[in-house]
């Protein structure tokens, strides 16, 4: 799993980790039944604290996307709801646009101009 974090992103790191895992599931990198790498391995790869990764994993568990099983690790339970996945991506887009000085209305106009 190749996850990356944007250190200039103002969102909390655990939110970024959760979004990256959610995106990996949405894109089919992981499918229901697949096991994720251990939290410690993810934390080491990202250069962050394991508790931060665990917080992101618990958030995704609470959403019903992941399942924690003692002795078996964390596995994907189901795919995200398409609408909530799009809302998450749209939220990220609006936040990114804001860093460039664009408003939500500006983003909507840009989207309307797409073919």
UniProtKB/TrEMBL annotation:
GO molecular function, one term: DNA binding
One Pfam family, short name: GntR
Keywords: DNA-binding, Transcription, Transcription regulation
Keyword DNA-binding annotated: yes
UniProt key word Zinc: no
Family annotation (CDD domains): WHTH_GntR (cd07377)
Gene3D superfamilies membership: Winged helix-like DNA-binding domain superfamily/Winged helix DNA-binding domain
Span of domain HTH gntR-type: 11-79
PANTHER family associated with the record: GNTR-FAMILY TRANSCRIPTIONAL REGULATOR (PTHR38445:SF7), HTH-TYPE TRANSCRIPTIONAL REPRESSOR YTRA (PTHR38445)
Name of protein: GntR family transcriptional regulator
